Amino acid sequence: MEKLSNPQKTIEVIQKYSFYFQKKFGQNFLIDAHVLDKIIAAAEITKDDFVLEIGPGIGTMTQYLAEAAREVTAVEIDRNLIPILHETLAEYDNVTILNQDVLKTDIAAIAREKNGGRPIKVVANLPYYITTPIIMGLLESQVPVDCIAVMVQKEVAQRMQAGPGTKDYGALSLAVQYYAEPYIAANVPPNCFIPRPNVGSAVIRLTRYQEPPVKVKDEKLLFALIRASFNQRRKTLVNGLKNSSELPYGKEELLSALEKAGLPENIRGEALTLEQFAQLADALIRE
Ligand code: SAM
């Protein structure tokens, strides 16, 4: 079959099945072969790889993945797309389609069954309304994933990659960077999709660390500190943390922990590196 990255072919398939786009599912289908090549290259897919694709749509990226990888499982929530996928992927015998919500899918079980429990790759043009739960779910869970290469909203990609002191730096940057090394592989304009989204997009690759880059005694405390610091971004770190309902610390205790961590008392959360947040978390542990 002719590739769906040819916009004419995509339109033909959509018309043949009278498919209607559902906004609630974040449906923007790729129609640019160059962008698809970039995603496959960013994920460094080889014939050894098992790939999980989230939201195959009509199968545009799935066709590329099926050719590059050993095996692909594609999880699609919209049942109207399933008969279309069976047609557009008919010539590939290494693709499994699951009609499921990815947030309710047991990905660890898929990795066990399809890849003997070895780390899998996740590649997707993500539905933007659930980008963060999908990515954080993959990073925080025990699912063996070593590479996530995904299309996301450009602004979200920038937040994931941002460093201290920049306007995009926040809880998402630190949460992602605790688990993985981010790299923005391409910026993608709205005209590469049908229908066009009203935001710019970017391909980001997250390469998972074997071990987090910082060691901390209490991971939950680290993330509570990070959340509280950025909830009250304009305040000094001490005031932000003191006012947080999630944390039990008073001003004196916070000031003494800052000193122990070698941080000035009027510092703002947005100036701290991941390592400094980890030092502060350790300094707050009551012996
Ligand atoms: N991969 C296709 C492409 O690049 O042309 C489609 C990408 S489109 C941005 C997102 C896809 O994710 C849609 O097909 C949508 O139906 C699907 N989707 C949305 N929510 C989902 C969910 N919770 N679980 C699985 N798939 C979902």
List the helices and strands and how they pair.
Elements: H1 7-16, E1 29-30, H2 33-42, E2 50-54, H3 60-68, E3 71-76, H4 82-88, E4 95-99, H5 107-115, E5 120-125, H6 131-140, E6 145-153, H7 154-161, H8 171-179, E7 180-188, E8 193-194, E9 201-208, H9 219-231, H10 237-242, H11 251-260, H12 274-283
Parallel strand pairs: 2-3, 2-5, 3-4, 5-6
Antiparallel strand pairs: 1-8, 6-9, 7-9
Helix pairs in contact: 6-8, 9-12
The protein binds S-adenosylmethionine (SAM).
Residues 25-30, 54-57, 60-61, 75-78, 81, 101-103, 125, 127, 130 line the site of S-adenosylmethionine.
Question: Would you give an account of this structure?
Answer:
The chain is of the alpha/beta class. It folds into 2 domains: 7-208, Vaccinia Virus protein VP39 (Rossmann fold), CATH 3.40.50.150; 219-284, rRNA adenine dimethylase, C-terminal domain (Helicase, Ruva Protein, domain 3), CATH 1.10.8. The protein is built from 12 helices and 9 strands. Helix 6 (131-140) packs parallel to helix 8. The protein is elongated and about 70 Å long. The model has no long low-confidence stretch (mean pLDDT 96). S-adenosylmethionine (SAM) binds next to strand 1, helix 3 and strand 3.
